[in-house]
Design a protein that fits this description.
about 400 residues; alpha+beta; eleven-stranded mixed beta sheet; five-stranded mixed beta sheet; 18 strands; globular
Length: about 400
């Protein structure tokens, strides 16, 4: 089987105009493409829809983002033109890849009140989607009302915990949701994420699953947040619901992590404060005619993004190649699909679009993880490729 970064993994057509930020002409965008001409992956930026090669500055996105003046250099440097973005979306010049390479891929869980409730429902249902509606009706009036507006680690959160403990409704998910310590876990391995236009994979054992549209923070090795992108933290509700100890099996599977389409770097206009006010939209369209929409306002998060990054990267835990952090989602789909009371689950062929105007649109199609191309282009393969192309000193 072809290595994933080379393989054509989707026959669905995308156009640059459909995936870029609404103000792309003012945005500083960083991404990666597999260039057929170069014979490997290239860090790139965009100008007027043209893909410009950054390999002469840094051969990896990880190394590029460590440069102090990276935003200025991207705006002024004379860079080789690799073609139009559409030529990488249709496969004629290569492929659009996930916009990260050597960075650790981390995620924060249970960071919104609505998703906290759904995690408790999964726990109570033990992975049985048929029990979810009854449990939701019983718990929502009590737990849901108590959680809204509660900041994690606050005095109010401690009062809520005491109340729910008295009612025998406390949960391990509520502990990480509103307690002092966030849930930070490894979503995927470096180099394993898929990009915009690729398939995303669901483990074949799962019958109850969903997309998780999220904003993703992009950090340097020292923990500085340098930009943001979008992500799909594909989730298996039945697997994690059986046991929280199955989190790895529920989260880290072949093609189960999607990031993109591009990293938007912070500048004078696009800042962390702007990101904190974005609303992330979700659209799922099935081949069966099913359609589902939803929104996640990041302002409803229970912990500030900088706080979550601080819990990820600190004196006790470092990431020398940088890291990205999924911030969590408030969107927990409950729209019935297979039958009354069954809630939502994916079907193969679903088109999933995650978008917000300042970051663009991340589009993927759903398949089984054992039907998606195997991940074969890892760190050693990348190093060999870059050395062969004479880029070893720029890693």
């Amino acid at each position: 089987m072809k290595k994933r970064e080379v393989a054509l993994v989707s026959t669905h057509a995308l156009k640059a105009v459909g995936i870029l930020p609404d103000d792309a002409d003012r945005a500083i965008l960083v991404g990666r493409v597999w260039s057929n001409d170069a014979g490997g992956p290239c860090p790139v930026t965009l100008r007027n829809g043209r893909v410009l090669d950054l390999s002469g500055i840094a051969a990896t996105v990880s190394g590029l983002l460590e440069l102090d003046d990276v935003a200025q250099r991207l705006g002024t440097a004379d860079l080789p033109d690799l073609g139009h973005l559409d030529e990488y979306l249709d496969g004629s010049r290569g492929r659009l890849l996930a916009p990260i390479d050597l960075q650790a891929v981390k995620a924060a869980g249970v960071t919104f009140a609505d998703s906290m409730l759904e995690r408790v429902i999964e726990e109570q249902a033990r992975g049985d989607s048929g029990r979810a509606q009854e449990i939701r009706a019983r718990l929502a009036p009590v737990i849901g009302e108590n959680l809204r507006g509660v900041q994690a680690g606050s005095e109010k959160s401690r009062q809520v915990k005491a109340l729910l403990q008295e009612m025998n409704l406390w949960s391990q998910y509520l502990e990480v949701g509103i307690g002092p310590d966030a849930e930070i876990f490894t979503k995927a391995q470096p180099m394993s994420s898929v990009g915009c236009g690729d398939k995303v994979g669901l483990h074949p054992i799962s019958e109850w699953n969903n997309p998780e549209p999220e904003v993703v923070m992009v950090t340097r090795a020292d923990g500085t947040i340098i930009g943001a992108t979008l992500g799909n933290d594909v989730n298996l509700r039945d697997v994690e619901g059986r046991s929280a100890l199955l989190l790895g099996k529920a989260k880290d599977n072949n093609a189960s992590c999607s990031i993109g389409p591009f990293i938007r770097l912070f500048d004078g206009e696009f800042t962390l404060e702007v990101v904190e006010q974005v609303v992330v939209s979700l659209l799922v369209q099935g081949e069966d005619g099913f359609e589902m929409t939803g929104e996640s306002p990041l302002a409803a998060i229970s912990r500030k993004p900088a706080d979550l990054v601080g819990q990820m990267r600190n004196r006790s835990h470092q990431y020398p190649d940088g890291a990205v952090l999924f911030l969590g989602t408030m969107f927990a789909p409950v729209k019935d699909r297979r039958g009354k009371g069954q809630g939502f689950t994916h079907e193969m062929g679903d088109r999933v679009e995650i978008s917000t105007p300042r970051l663009g649109r991340l589009v993927n199609w759903v398949d089984r993880s054992d039907a998606c191309p195997e991940w074969g282009f890892g760190t050693r393969e990348l190093m060999r490729n870059l050395v062969k192309r004479g880029l070893g000193e720029r890693i």
